[in-house]
Known about the structure:
Shape: elongated
Number of helices: 16
Distance between the termini: 66 Å
Helix content: 40-55%
Low-confidence stretches: 398-405
Strand content: 5-15%
Radius of gyration: 25 Å
Strand order of the largest sheet: 3-2-1-4-5-6-7
Structural class: alpha/beta
Amino acid sequence: MNNRRICIVTPEKNAYFETFIHAHIQSLPGKIFPLYGGAFPVYKDNGDVLFHPPGFWRRGLQLILRKIFRISLSEEVQRSKALKKFIIHNKIEAVLAEYGPTGYAIRNACQEAGVPLIVHFHGHDAYEEKTLIKYNRYKDLFTCVESIIIVSKHMKRQLLGLGAPPEKLKYVPCGVDIDQFNGANPQNAAPIFIAVGRFIDKKAPYLTLLAFKKVLEKAPQATLKMFGTGDLYEACWQLTKALRMNHAVTFKGSRSSYEIASEMRQARGFIHHSLRTNSGDSEGIPIAVLEAGASGLPVAASRHGGIPDVVIDGKTGLLFNEGDINAMAEAILKIAQYPILAGQMGRMAQKRVRENFNIEKSIQSLNAEIESAINRTKAKSKAAPFLDKLEEYLNLSEPVMVGSA
Length: 405
């Protein structure tokens, strides 16, 4: 149905790397009500505040209620009440929470409002140890959530290990705009390589640089363009200078998807080195890997998270183990030195992404899961009075033990 009223709750409104969330807000059918602001929603789409923290007089009143009448209205409870009111007032039929912590924070409001909660896990929220500890490994969330959206087969195994009910896990991989990302011709391109991603630990940009240094020893004509920003940006820039490879490596910073798509059309291949950090942080499916495949580029990437779901080793790209810079260098060299092979793998990569990871298919699958969650919730609601009466009858019908006369 296209007249559904869906609330999408996400931590940030304009995070440049969350293109998948922007696609949900813009492309899901029906009336979409976005809410933003940390784990718990604060802002509406127009900037209005959903919940105002208590001022001086309100805090004083709360203190009196707590001291005299033993009534406690914590800020968490008040936030939950504000969200419940928003859901009911706007006749919301389902809530999609982006990331596990968001779902955990709003679970009670959704339950009290009687609407299904669908939680979309993306990466670190399913793996990072401190996050799992903070939210008690999502035990409470798994109980009350209607559906859990996962983006990779590896994530499915991870959440099953945390105790997620298997019947609630729904595999919906991310998708990309295949009309925007296309047109690469790696067979005829110069040995230009593209890397796209934030400069953070789990994307290991420093390992990409160390591997590319080895590539330059055998293919000095190769060049690398790195897109993104992050905490490791300066360190990687300095590392490039120290390794005396700044002539071959260009740091492009944060660029629009249109600029990146254009750069991919001129490249020979795409490289990506994700790994599991000491904190457990890991990826779901890196969107840039999908964009490269859709463009028609062969991908050299680590066996990490959902990457093997996308990249078929030896067919659509080349895979190597996490942390193995020698194997990464060999994979890049193979693409650099054999342009015909690069062209063959690029065409197969494009076919695979277009058939399995396009944005239209991803949105359709997600919408189908939301629709199913709404229907299941309505069915439960209709059955509830009957089940309550049945339970009451069974309790009244228990045999009564009568003592001997």
